[in-house]
Amino acid sequence: QTGIFQSLLVRTTQQQGNRKIHRGERALQHTTARACAGKKESKTRLVRSSLLLPEAEPEKSKRTVLACNRLKTTKYTALSFLPKNLFEQFHRLANVYFVFIALLNFVPAVNAFQPELALAPVLFILAVTAIKDLWEDYSRYRSDQEINHMECLVYSRNEKKYISRYWKEVKVGDFVQLRCNEIIPADILLLSSSDPDGLCHIETANLDGETNLKQRQVVRRFLELDSEFDPLKFTSVIECEKPNNDLSRFRGYIIHKSGKKDGLFKENLLLRGCTIRNTEEVAGIVIYAGHETKALLNNNGPRYKRSKLERQMNADVLWCVLILLIMCLFSAIGHGLWVWQYGEKKKPIFDVPGPDGKYLSPVLASVYLFLTVIIVFQVLIPISLYVSIEIVKICQVYFIHQDKDLYDEETDSQLQCRALNITEDLGQVQFIFSDKTGTLTENKMVFRRCTVSGIEYSHDDNAKRLAMYQEPDSEEEEAAPKAGTLSQRDSICSHQSIKVIHRSQSTKTHRRTGSRAEAKRASILSKHTAFSSPMEKDITPDPRLLEKVNECAKHLEVMRSHEQPLSHLSPELCDVFDFFIALTICNTVVVTAPNQPRQKVNRFELKSPVKTIEDFIRRFTPSRLTAGSNSSSSSSLATSKSMHRFGLSTLSSTSTDSTLLKLEENSQQGRTAVGGTPEEGELRYEAESPDEAALVYAARAYNCSLVGRLSDQVSVELPHLGTLSFEVLHTLGFDSIRKRMSVVVRHPLTDEINVYTKGADSVVMDLLLPYDPRGKHQKKIRSKTQNYLNLYAVDGLRTLCIAKRVLSKEEYGCWLKTHLEAESSIENREELLFQSALRIEKNLHLLGATGIEDRLQDGVPETIASLRKAGLQIWVLTGDKQETAVNIAYACKLLDHDEEIITLNTFSNPSELLIFPVLNLLQAVTKSLLIRSNTQGTRLIVLGLVIDGRTLAYALEPALEDKFLALAKRCRSVLCCRSTPLQKSMVVKLVRDKLKAMTLAIGDGANDVSMIQVADVGVGISGQEGMQAVMASDFAIPRFRHLEKLLLVHGHWCYSRLANMVLYFFYKNAMFVALLFWYQFYCGFSGSSMIDQWYLIFFNLFFSSLPQLITGVLDKDVPAEVLIAVPQLYKSGQNMEEYQPHMFWMNMIDAMYQSLVCFFIPYFTYYDSEVDIFSWGTPITTIALFTIILHLAIETKTWHILFLADIYKNIILFFFVALVYNASCPVCHPPSNPYWTMERLMGDPVFYFTCIISPVVALLPRFLYRTLQGTLFPTQLQLGRQLSKLSPETRTQLLTELNVKETIRQTQLLADSFSLSLGSNASHCYRAKNQSTPLPASPQTRESLFREHTKAEHKTDQTAAASPQGAVLYEENKLPSSAGSLERSVGFHDVRCGTSEVESLSVGTTLPWSSAVDQEDFSLLKWITSTPLFSHIGTVLQVSSSSLQNETRDSICVLGSSLHVDFKGLKEESSNCLQDKMKGTPTDHCKNENSETTFL
Amino acid sequence: MKNKTSFLPKEGEAQPSRCPDNSAFKQQRLPAWKPQLTIASVLSCFFLTGAFCITVGVCLVLSANSVREIQIDYSDKCSDCSKLRENSSNWNKECQCSVNFTLKEGDIFMYYGLQNFYQNHRRYVMSRSDAQLLGRNVNRSYCAPFSTYRNGTPMAPCGAIANSIFNDTIDLFYNHNSSVIQVPLLKTGNSWWTDKNVKFRNPDSYNLSSAFAGTARPPYWQKAVYLLDEEDERNNGYVNDDFIIWMRVSAFATFRNLYRRLRRVRHFAEGLPAGNYTFHISYNFPVARFKGRKHVILSTVVWSGGSNPFLGIAYLVSGSAATLTGFVITGIHLKLRKKKTYFQKQ
């Protein structure tokens, strides 16, 4: 129905739209229209000034199309609340069912209860939900009101000035003026700014959480206006896209009266919700208002997920329905027979005829009865279950919120639960998919090392200093001496500048003076204010490099004074100079001053002094002043600007002398700035990514500091040289596809056009000048740099390459033309810009590389270890470099050194090269390994898988994903590097869907959003990188380590509580209903109930609901300490031990038994007595209540005060209610009339005796079972509970034992779970490389590894590493060990089996492939890497291949075949070569059990 | 978090820390007793339960055994009457029969018992009007079809329960030395006090017949409601004890209702003496139609109820079961204790 409504709506709006278009055309002529919606197909919107002729306003219909700025997030209005809310509630099937039942009661022939009474519980539940909804809606309404009544300045036509209006009154086409620190009320096109360059800074923290400032630009043509912007004169029409939710895109153009068009981009748009910063005043026209703003379009409400447990529960609810139907059917048939046995004529006196005096036929009677008993037995479907679960989950969320351990003091943030209804999923997670950067690591970049033109500067001092920082520096008393040593060390560095010392002193004083709390506070502040804490900012320069920088600067100074060209500098110094220039300017860092630090801090005090920021900006951008005062430079700026538009004619106009003049000016200015800086404090850098800030700070440590950035100019302060102003011609921003960014600047010294590029080494290395003018030297530098890069990666550093390109003016001009076209194009600007960037970022000259450390967060290795013990498989999906990722993985103990690492890499994959055969092979190998480990039972084989993005792309293809999964499943940890966000989500989806596993994705950045959304549980880290991940997540935690407690403790608790509660619910209702069912056998299946209808209806709601809620919220099956100490206990949740399908049935059977007891003990007690129906039913109710509550008591593990109090409360309440009810009035409750029953019963000893014996007998079996199970076959959880009672010493002792056993058990499990299917698909050829990972490897190995990385040619030389040799060698080594030989034979046998199967397939395909190989020039490679320590795979592969070589030379195994085909020629020599090499170091290999063997 | 909430500026820089309170409740550290269901901890529980149950059981069995009861099925013994009553057209024909029996000792409560009479049938149970029985003239919707006659005359009392009232009259005679003495029996005081005084009330009027004027007796009744006990004004109409007792519908199809109590006078001051007795029964209530039986029961009553020994036996059985289980698990416990089997199974 909604669908129909919607389509109707759409149709009407379309019609309206069409009408509007006609009117719009007319309006265009009269220029009256304020705005109008374009045609649907045009997909654009036209916006005109609202100030033009407001008489046209009566055209109301037009205005309705555009949303006004009123915010309305409420769902209901006062009128629509009831129908709408009910409508929504009836979407829940259960509610419909209960209403149906209640309505059935109104049918006289069927009714079981007083109809009004039967409605009560349904109404109660509907009312509870409605009140909850109403309250939520009201709070939304209140906050809406608050926002709607915020004020802003809107231009008024009548008063000819900006007047204050409410936000909600702002309309599309209005002109809005905003002051600094004001929040933007709508999406506004920036038309004027008080900033002379037409810039405006906004803070988007509200929108995406990014804390840096973003620049916005006035629409170009309005920038040139001479006079103040006057809204009245605005006659242009703006055509732009329809409202959409893409924050990073805005396209459109503005059509001026003259007919000229200007493009509009996202740089021109101020988004609602952002805050104006650093700009005094801006004005603009509203483009999108209210709900059409990008901010609100992006704002999807909370998500509703259905948890696994709930799904399972729903299945069991269906079973309950089935049971109910069976019971009803049984009763109906029984009744039919009962009626039938009396025959037609001889109706017994107690069979009451219908109101018309006629008796029902047996069939009709049974049909009616069926409906009646549905009503009577309705309780079987737990009406309150859904409400209870909701309440319990809300309480659980509350308690998770309140957990102190999940609070992070540093960021003053705590866990946020954003999804309220999947708490128990936390207890069942099987796979964790984690991002690396920012999730495992701090995402606080620390500059560690760099290499410039092939020379490495290790920054050892810096490393030492960092090591000191890493020690807990909470003891403030110790901070002072530490700082002292720091400054000492600083002074030891002979070339240390004053500034650095000063800086370290300033930190010292800061540390000394601050009390503990203050220091904490300062650190919090600094975290809020910028990416960089003092730790990251202070970099101790490497003395050698510093020397070089100084030398370089000196040279430059000399050169400048002698007016020598720059080329006199030695190439190395030149590189050093350029390197630091690139570090400083190749970024988007914004400079702010420290005393007015970051507005984010000031966000809470909106009325902070604004002027000073401006002052600061002015004061600390001396070059800006220079530019202002110096006519020549400003003219050059102007020319450059005009150049943008008119091409390149004026390009060569700037003369050298003017540059020099400027330089001199600058240097003077710069000196004053240098003098001024320390007094006023330091400059602060705000970067979009922490890497950038780290690099800028690093450059500053070498006295090459960024002092100012404007849109077209960067000022750099250099030693001796003073301030240099680089004219920024273009900034080609970073994107994840290019993986680099560039700036195009005009070099002030040489006046050359320089392109500085900074990017991932993998891309930048490929873009380097292919043809090398400087010959061998450059080549050497390049390979050296590559080596160092690899070393950095091994150390887990993030590497960036810095490169430069000098453009000739002609080249630049050429490029500029296309670039400008791209910039001004409206259609596919992004893509054109991308292409344009690709064109300029080539033929680069490598300057150097940097290594930035991203430190691990606290407790990450421990958390991972503990999560792993908990049986969670942890996959890390990262966009980072493989080497970096692997090393971080080692650092955080994700990978272990005694683990077999399988690495899958594909290099340049043209066609459908498949990893299929590799996977097959690996399966065969792993199988054999497992078999061997089974037979031996001694060694544990743990696999780790490393796969990169490109390979992943193939692995995720439908044909391969199963194989991939089968392999990955067997690995203890999986590491996917260089994966895109989409791949991340695909991997998660694959695991989730194929393995039917519960997945959790954790990440912190925007690139993790898709993964977080796909996973069953999404966790966001509310860290540094914006709020997008948090917004998308179900839970947001401050730190990765909090995951441990969240999952192991809260997850487990939530799961076990809820599981127990659900099971108990089923039990309770079944037990209660069964009582009624048994009674049917004694009342002719007539549907009568001995339990009074009031009890029947309210039993669930009042008497037995609260204790289970309390248990559901507060029960702790195992204390938190034990859960943390024994992570294995988490497995109970993964295996669904608390709520397995059979448990439902066990509970049902138990319920049946208990109800039998509770029914028949009173039955036989009162058999053949004068007892009346309610005098007999009331004891049964009482017994049932006792039994149900005591059952809960048995199932509850912690009897805390609330629980006990509630149990007593319930029992007392029941008696109280019963007594009051039975004494209330003799006629009030027709048809039942239990007047004075309870009172009478309570004077009868039999009542008490019955009520005592029945629960005891009913619960004895369960009690006994629990006891025996707790003693004889205790579950892990029960053992855990016992642990908590032991003394700490015994506990630790037991735990160590436990862990040992655990590992053994895991191995067996692994082996058990192993099932193999050898592929039978056509296999393509591949090369597999079995290679040792570098860590314990000899230097030589490492070296060779690097070399392989460097170049493809090298690769062929070295990695032609003939496997036979390695294998033979290995075998020789191996042979003497007797233990090994047995192993080997087993493994050997198996692989032969495996390979012989593959063999037949590969034969056909090897030949065609060999030709492909030649073309591909060996860039086609797949690696299988295994760690050295237990290189089982290696062993087996080696053995098999060697044996094949020796014995069945002509038979082609997969490995052998590829070897044969690929390297027919090469093989001999390379093997010889390798043989020599290997023989050189056989001992090494022996010692380390470490072999490097390659199959190619 | 919705965007809009974060629009709102928060007052003051000195924000209170968001660190949660360290209270026992919020940190889920409420003091609690964590019972461990292991053999060692529950052993005493079993034995105590066993001891308790056996004690109570013995008491109950003893007391149940002290009950003297005699039950006489007279539905067949008066076969002529039974046949007569099968035909509902003979409802007004008198039929008398007598049953002789020998009693050993004195019993003081007299019940009539019915078998297979489904007084707990749902529609039967509902078919009454409590308001009417309180003497009010109200809507008797639940009584249909025994609410009004076709001509509109309301039935008093209405409903199927009232209509089907047990209308046998049973008199007990003591054959004492060839002379037959009618045993004096109390008609009143058999029903619950609250029923007699609160739930049932005759309509207000100067006399009963006028109070029930305009109403008619239910179809099965032989006489009008105000003629139920003409001797005793306070036992007539709706407040008639036999009627009240009948209106309290029984829980099962086999039940007994208290009919008369012995009035301890003269010969019977010590209860019923041993000897031969005769029931004179005016046989009205038809049972053959639903294969029912009618009994007359004489019984004594003790504190624990009637002669039903079930409860006592149940206590004994469960008590001994608990004790036995206690012994068994003690054995298991002792055996396990030697082994020290914590964490044996992983």
UniProtKB/TrEMBL annotation, chain A:
The lineage of its organism: Eukaryota, Metazoa, Chordata, Craniata, Vertebrata. Keywords: ATP-binding, Endoplasmic reticulum, Magnesium, Membrane, Metal-binding, Nucleotide-binding, Translocase, Transmembrane, Transmembrane helix. GO terms for cellular component: endoplasmic reticulum membrane; plasma membrane. Its EC number is 7.6.2.1. The keyword Transferase does not apply. The active site is at D435. Pfam families: Cation_ATPase, PhoLip_ATPase_C, PhoLip_ATPase_N. ATP binds at D435, K436, T437, E692, F734, K758, R798, T878, G879, D880, R978, K984, N1007, D1008. Mg(2+) binds at D435, T437, D1004, D1008. Belongs to the cation transport ATPase (P-type) (TC 3.A.3) family. Type IV subfamily. One of its GO terms (biological process) is phospholipid translocation. It is a multi-pass membrane protein. Its main location: endoplasmic reticulum. Residues 65-116 form the P-type ATPase N-terminal domain. It catalyses: a beta-D-glucosyl-(1<->1')-N-acylsphing-4-enine(out) + ATP + H2O = a beta-D-glucosyl-(1<->1')-N-acylsphing-4-enine(in) + ADP + phosphate + H(+); ATP + H2O + phospholipidSide 1 = ADP + phosphate + phospholipidSide 2. SUPFAM superfamilies: Calcium ATPase, transduction domain A, Calcium ATPase, transmembrane domain M, HAD-like, Metal cation-transporting ATPase, ATP-binding domain N. It is found in: Endoplasmic reticulum membrane; Membrane. InterPro entries: ATPase_P-typ_cyto_dom_N, ATPase_P-typ_P_site, ATPase_P-typ_TM_dom_sf, ATPase_P-typ_transduc_dom_A_sf, HAD-like_sf, HAD_sf, P-type_ATPase_IV, P-type_ATPase_N. This is Phospholipid-transporting ATPase. It is an enzyme of class 7 (translocase). One of its GO terms (molecular function) is ATP binding. The chain crosses the membrane at residues 317-339, 359-381, 1062-1082, 1094-1114, 1144-1167, 1173-1194, 1201-1221, 1246-1265. The keyword Secreted does not apply. Its cofactor is Mg(2+). Residues 1030-1275 form the P-type ATPase C-terminal domain. CDD domains: P-type_ATPase_APLT_Dnf-like.
Automatic annotation (TrEMBL), chain B:
Keywords: Glycoprotein, Membrane, Transmembrane, Transmembrane helix. PANTHER family: CELL CYCLE CONTROL PROTEIN 50, CELL CYCLE CONTROL PROTEIN 50C. The keyword Transmembrane helix applies. It comes from Cyanistes caeruleus. Its main location: membrane. GO terms for cellular component: endoplasmic reticulum; Golgi apparatus; plasma membrane. GO terms for biological process: phospholipid translocation. The keyword DNA-binding does not apply. The gene is LOC111939788. It is found in: Membrane. Residues 1-20 are annotated as: Disordered. The chain crosses the membrane at residues 37-64, 313-336. Belongs to the CDC50/LEM3 family. This is Cell cycle control protein. InterPro entries: CDC50/LEM3_fam. It comes from the Eukaryota.
